[in-house]
Amino acid sequence: MIDEDREGIPFVGAGPGDPELLTVAGRRLLEGADLVVHAGSLVNGQLLEEYCEGARTVNSAGKDLEELIPLMADAYEAGETVVRLHSGDPSIYGAAVEQMDALAERGIPSYLVPGVTAAFAASATLGTQLTLPEVSNHVVITRPQGRTLDAENDHITEFVDMGDVTTCVYLGTHAVRETMDRLLEDGQEPDTPVAVVYHASWPDEDVITGTIDTIADRVEEAGYRASALVVIGEAVTGSGYERSHLYGGWAKGEHDWED
Length: 259
Description:
alpha/beta; 259 residues; 10 strands; elongated; disordered C terminus
C-alpha cells in the first residue's frame, strides 16, 4: 500500500501514455505535488495537463544527475512536495535507483510507485496475451546492443531460440533491421511473427506486424526510429494456443488427489 503520509520523493510510473492508465496512487501524488520532474516527451503531455495543474513541471531530458539531484533535493528540503515522474514503470530501464541512491547521499528518502509498462499496453493493443498455453510460457524484457549494452550481453537470439518465449524489446526501434538481420544470421525462422507497437495507448498509436524477415522494411517505411516496442514470438498472433487448465475440471475441484 502506498501510504499518502510517507516521507520522501516518490518515483512514479506514468504508465505507457494514456492518462487513464496512471495508477490511482500516482494520480494522487501528482495532484498534491509542488514540483514534478518528468521524463520529457516520453510522458504524454495530456497527463501533465490533467493531473499537474497546480505543480511546477520540469523536463528532465538532457539533464544529468548533477543537475537533477540538486533540483529535486533543494525543493524537497525547502518543504515542497516533489514527484519524480518516469514513463512506463520506473523499474524497467528507468535509471531510478541511481537517482534514489544519490538522493540518499543527501539524506533524502525516496520510494517507487509502480506503473503500467509498455509491454502490457502493447499486449492489450494487439489483443493477445504475452503468455499463451502451449505457445509462450515465458516473457522476456530486454534491449538490443548499443551504447549501453555490449554485443556479448545482447541475448535476443537466445531468447527467441527458446521458442516458447515472447521477447519484448525496449529501446530498440532504431535497431530493428540490425536486430532482425542478426536473428536471421543466427538461424531463426524467417516467418517468426513480430509486431512493432508505436506509442502504445497514445492517441497516435500505430501497429506494424510482420515477421523477422519482413518487419524491418515495414518499420522503415513507416519512418519510426523511437518510442515503439518490438514484440517477437508466436504469441503476437494470439493463435495456436491450447485451452487453459484454469477452466478445466481440476480448477472446479473435480480431480482426485494422490495420497
